[in-house]
């Protein structure tokens, strides 16, 4: 069952030098409970797409539904159904972890008591319990990321959007974060839509990949299917596959599979 | 829902203000310096037919406090955009109007508080004015703050850097201060300047507060002041909400 579906989703920006089409027309479907890796070179339109799907940016073309709510006609429904962690996170460094989590709960219309309970629950789940009274600015990179995700999980969203969640994290924190993402899907059935530049991450974590370039989807499938089709063999690295798809590497874009 | 969300956003930003008490007092410094070092120059000048020079100067300083303080309020939004806080809040179901109103009402509370400090200092310096007039003055400070802070937040959502934001605000606030006769009443001005200043909405607010400070409440200036202040606030909040609703910031 599709939990996200987009057809021709597009966004152009007006600049001094005329219109710039950041996203030209994205068609994609994400199944419920799937971990989807959304890949593409810098400037391909990943973040713009994410911001449209989370109601932050109004599309200039096309349509999409998230968890059954239409982006254009029911943005409030979309907001209730999804959580979003931006690249920059989104906490005030001068505020304590507890205060941010409780305020976030209240923004999702929980009562004060419910919000306090939910904050404790989330910090317990995400291993932040000892840090509740710490200022957000005093957390390590990995702790900050877990807090950002805790904030986005406040209302138990059906879909979680993560924009480059592991950028800047050390290997240990990255491994923890991968475990967390898998646990969210396995325990709560959360659909996870994540962008990343780390191809090992996409390979290890995603059930399916969607590759965008210049504002359109240029390839999609399971990591192994993409490797077979574009990388030449199932043993190809995702790195070579990615370069072949986006036409920015040595392998020819239309190389025929080795096993004919 | 709007009320719930507004109270919530107001609380968040009020706590932020209370954490930096120094910054809160710092805002009152500029008008206070005018009061101390500029006010005494005026005491023997024939500024108006009624009342003392303090009754002319203090209303101007009150609105100057609002004018400069509130128009720079948007800096906080530029910082929060960088931290991702603005977007994080905008993906929650929170009312868009509340995101603006909560901040703006916090600003109004802060500036009215600073206005109280300023008036207390002025009383020490020699100001004598009717209590009702003083209270009316605070109401005008609150309305002016709501207007200017809304516009400031709207601009901050639109521009991307403080390097653009700061000079833009300065370019608007300086002429606004001079043309509205905040320091000295425009009745002293030559004809052309007086006419020009009538195009500046803040002039009507200052004139109204000056009337209030001498105990004249049923005047044409008061009527114009109230109408302009309310109209400006309605316009500014409308613009601000529209920007908060749609901003791709």
Overall description:
The complex is a heterodimer of chains A (260) and B (249). Chain A has helices spanning 46-53, 75-81, 97-107, 112-125, 141-152, 171-188, 199-205, 223-231, 238-246; strands spanning 2-15, 18-31, 35-39, 61-66, 69-70, 82-85, 159-163, 191-195, 208-213, 216-221. Chain A has 260 residues and is an alpha/beta fold. Chain A has a domain at 2-92 and 152-221: Rossmann fold (3-Layer(aba) Sandwich), CATH 3.40.50. In chain A, strands 6-7-8-3-9-10 form a six-stranded mixed beta sheet, with helices on both faces. A four-stranded antiparallel beta sheet of chain A has the order 2-1-4-5. Chain B has 249 residues and is an all-alpha fold. The mean pLDDT of chain B is 91. Classes of the chains: A alpha/beta (260), B mainly alpha (249). The A-B interface holds A 13, 51, 54-58, 76, 79-80, 82-84, 86-95, 99, 103-104, 106-109, 151 and B 1, 4-5, 8, 12, 15-16, 19, 80, 82-85, 87-94, 246, 248.
Compose a concise summary of this entry.
Chain A is an alpha/beta fold. Chain A has helices spanning 46-53, 75-81, 97-107, 112-125, 141-152, 171-188, 199-205, 223-231, 238-246, and strands at 2-15, 18-31, 35-39, 61-66, 69-70, 82-85, 159-163, 191-195, 208-213, 216-221. Chain B contains 13 helices and no strands.
């Amino acid at each position: 069952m599709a939990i996200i579906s987009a057809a021709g989703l597009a966004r152009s920006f007006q600049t001094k030098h005329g219109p710039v089409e950041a996203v030209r027309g994205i068609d994609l479907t994400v199944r419920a409970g799937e971990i989807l890796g959304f890949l593409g070179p810098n400037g391909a339109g990943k973040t713009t797409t994410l911001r449209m799907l989370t109601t932050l940016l109004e599309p200039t073309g096309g349509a999409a539904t998230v968890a059954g709510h239409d982006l254009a006609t029911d943005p409030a429904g979309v907001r209730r159904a999804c959580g979003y962690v931006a690249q920059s996170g989104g906490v005030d460094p001068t505020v304590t972890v507890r205060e941010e989590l409780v305020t976030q709960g209240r923004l999702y219309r929980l009562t004060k008591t419910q919000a306090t309970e939910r904050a404790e629950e989330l910090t317990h789940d995400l291993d932040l319990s000892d840090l509740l009274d710490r200022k957000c600015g005093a957390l390590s990179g990995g702790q900050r990321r877990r807090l950002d995700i805790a904030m986005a999980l406040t209302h138990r969203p059906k879909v979680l959007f993560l924009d480059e969640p592991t950028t800047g994290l050390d290997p240990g924190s990255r491994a923890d974060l991968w475990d967390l993402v898998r646990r969210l899907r396995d325990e709560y059935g959360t659909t996870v839509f994540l962008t990343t530049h780390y191809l090992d991450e996409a390979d290890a974590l995603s059930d399916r990949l969607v590759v965008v370039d210049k504002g359109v989807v240029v390839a999609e499938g399971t990591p192994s299917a993409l490797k077979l089709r574009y990388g030449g063999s199932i043993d190809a690295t995702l790195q070579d596959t990615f370069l072949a798809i986006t036409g920015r590497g040595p392998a020819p874009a239309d190389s025929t599979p080795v096993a004919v | 829902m709007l009320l719930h969300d507004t109270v919530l956003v107001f609380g968040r930003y009020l706590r932020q203000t209370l954490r930096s008490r120094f910054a809160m007092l710092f805002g009152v410094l500029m008008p206070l310096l005018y009061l101390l070092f500029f006010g005494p120059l005026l005491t023997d000048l024939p500024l108006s037919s009624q009342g003392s020079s303090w009754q002319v100067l203090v209303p101007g300083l009150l609105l100057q406090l609002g004018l400069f303080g509130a128009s720079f309020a948007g800096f906080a939004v530029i910082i929060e955009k960088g931290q991702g806080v603005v977007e994080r809040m905008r993906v929650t179901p929170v009312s868009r109007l509340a995101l603006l109103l909560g901040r703006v009402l916090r600003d109004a509370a802060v500036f009215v508080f600073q206005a109280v400090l300023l008036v207390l200092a002025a009383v020490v310096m020699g100001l004598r004015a009717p209590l009702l007039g003083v209270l009316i003055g605070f109401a005008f400070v609150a309305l002016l703050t709501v207007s200017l802070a809304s516009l400031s937040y709207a601009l901050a959502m639109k521009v991307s850097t403080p390097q653009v934001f700061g000079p833009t605000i300065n370019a608007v606030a300086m002429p606004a201060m001079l043309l509205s006769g905040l320091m000295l009443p425009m009745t002293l001005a030559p004809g052309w300047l007086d006419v020009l200043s009538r195009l500046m909405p803040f002039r009507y607010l200052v004139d109204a507060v000056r009337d209030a400070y001498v105990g004249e409440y049923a005047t044409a200036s008061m009527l114009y002041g109230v109408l302009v202040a309310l109209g400006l606030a309605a316009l500014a909040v409308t613009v601000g909400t529209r920007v908060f609703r749609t901003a791709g910031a």
